[in-house]
Amino acid sequence: MSLYNLFRYIGLRHLTQKPTRALLTTLGVAFGIALYVAIAIINHSIKDSMRESVESVAGKAKLTVTGGVSGFDEAKLEVIRTTPGVKAAVPLVQARAFFAGATESYEGLQIMGVDMLQDTSVRSYKATDQRIIDDPLVFLNQPDSIILTESLAKARGLKLNSKLRLSTVNGLREFTVRGLLEPEGAAKAYGGALALMDIDGVRMTFGRENKLDRVDIIPEKNISVDQVQKNIEERLGPGLQVERPETQSESTERVLATYQLLLTFFSLLALLVGLFLVMNSISVAIAERRREIGVLRALGATRASMVILFVTEVIGVGLAGSTLGCLLGKVLSELLSKQVITSVGAQLQTQITVSKLELSISQALFTIACGTGAAIFAALLPALKAATIHPLESMKKNSESFSDQDEKRGRILVWIGLFLLIFNCVVVARGLGRYWIGIDIASKASSVLGVALFGPFIVFVLLKLCRIFTRKSSRPVLKIAHENLLRSRRRTSSNVVALMIGLFLVMLISSVRNSFHDTLTSWLDQIFVADLMVGSNGRFITADVQLLKEEVENDLSQVEGVREIQAGRGTAVRWFPYNTKAQDLPSKPLIIILIILTTNILRCLRETELKRRLLFSIQRNLIS
Amino acid sequence: MLLQVQSLNKTYTRGNQIVRALKDVSLELKAGQFVSIMGPSGSGKSTLLHLMGGLDRPTSGCVILNGDAIERMNDDELSLFRRKRLGFIFQFFNLLPTLSALENVALPRLLDGEPLKNIEPKARELLEMIGMGKRTDHKPDQLSGGEMQRVAIARALIADPLLILADEPTGNLDSKTGDAILKLMREMTDKTGKTIVMVTHDLKAAQTGNRLIRMRDGSLESDESL
Known about the structure:
Chain A is of the alpha+beta class. Helix content of chain A is 58%, strand content 14%. A 6-stranded mixed β-sheet of chain B has the order 6-7-8-3-9-10, with helices on both faces. A 4-stranded antiparallel β-sheet of chain B has the order 2-1-4-5.
């Protein structure tokens, strides 16, 4: 009850009497929570989307054979079909296509090339008019046939028999919508940004001749799935992956986890800044209210009740900030989703389409509880300091007076700060950090702590030096402000420490960002010596591109001003342990990149632009 | 005997120097006395008051109030003791700026967990008694120095304490207002029988009480009834 009175008559009054401070602190918490919530929503939605895509595409299949981004030879299909225990094996070829004029990778769609006659044994589809296609033979005989999901068709303003143009290996090609799928079964994959075509049509149109990306398998009923998996692995040998769909989903999530952890780390840094704001706000409030605390202690308030007083003041701020943060986070997730999803897609070399970004009530309540808890935690240290304020503070004329012990403690802290800074300087100057990461971390930590402890001393020295000028100043306001800063040592110190640590956090974020940037710049400088790069739609850096025909190389050599052309191709390959037998790597190129060396004049003109564009693309993918 | 101070010593360090603020001080107080402690700066009068009020701990010796030895109490017990048994009047009034006069008066009992509606009648009665009945809802920044000290006196009385300790209660007031406050304190002793210990360096103020203790260099110099 006394705690209620403390909050009701003292804590709450201070909050309402200093609304600006309360608002700023609340906003600090809110922005931190907002970024955390936004990243959490996006991460969660991506996971859901990935899981749904894997499960939807897998359908009734119990096992799936894949060969990475490169795909594998179609001859393997027969090997799989003839493996003991395999009831049905259905092939699938996948390709990325882009609508004509698309500039962003999220404007693309996933093309699934399926065996029209066999695919329904594994995957289920539901057409909007009960039948996917009127006549499968007509569909197969017309290579421009394409089936879209209803949602995608609606989004692009397409209907049955509508024409659409997609970029392919052979340039822009026109397709005819011959069916529409309801969002059920396989059509739920990739958030509905999906199109079905005949497998041979995809191979021809998207340069995937003789290739398969996956085979979905239904085993015989009288044999265990594990046994069938073992049989297939033995017959296929190393290089191809035979796994259950759920394992595929788990391994995708594992790959995703590291990237999502990085994003969460950045969002937590923002939250840390918000919590530091809480800590500073409470520290300043305590510095200002030392006499009041002394009076309360003299009148009989216990140490514990002083801690609780400041903690309860923060509960309101934490609750309001966290609730606002959840709302802002939802909005922010909508704004950031495209960039983050594209970036994650690049990491996984697949398309991710998130149809909904949701924050459930239980997640929101959990976040509010955690945000409030974190704000309380941030306030705990200064609140504990408040509990040490002696009742005799109430008797002092100047509430900013310092005991000998305070002065001694202050001097020790300044010396510790100086020592830490010297340590940091020595480590940096001698490059000792490279010998052991522990020294490097200790050095960085000592720079922060050193600045925080030594900083206020430097500021006070500078303030005292400034006296020379303010004394001569004819402006009384300047003199009063200057003297106030010097007199309120605790408050000024708290602000300086807060500023130093806040600055450090900003520097930390920007240094991590710059580190990425520098690494990539250096990599680009070493890899790309060309002045111009020709690629298909999509982004080279995300491998979200289509093949180029080899004839393009000849065509480009005819262009005036082109001195030299280098053709290149890139692919993602799997890493196997050194003792594995010969690998069955793809025999044909997947992606062709043309690197062109032009005349020197063109080089001068284009160099900056090329790098800028590449860096822009990379930054957008890796550093959101 | 209400208060017994036995062989009280207090030393502290200032820089490299050891300062003996109190040297073997012993005294006894009866209930209903208005005791003035007077002395020049550094004589130890404030230190003695702090030790009597459990605001500080002695280096040696003991303070016994109504049979309870203060120096044996831990911090929480001491807080409770100050809340229940003692009243304080400060030189700088020390009213909380966010509370009204009435709430400031009620503060010691609010800290004890009582709801304001239970305390309000007594708080109003005390404010009436000290002539502040019409300014109960005013905040400290709307009150004069004398008015603030009146509110502080009412606050010291709200918990019905055994002993009221006043540290230079007129030190921050003009002489006319100071006289009025001293008169009020004297009336308080006469009407309610409260025991007051007041520290002052002003002889005129000290003579308001019925006992005068003089201090010099940390020791009692004289102790006389007025």
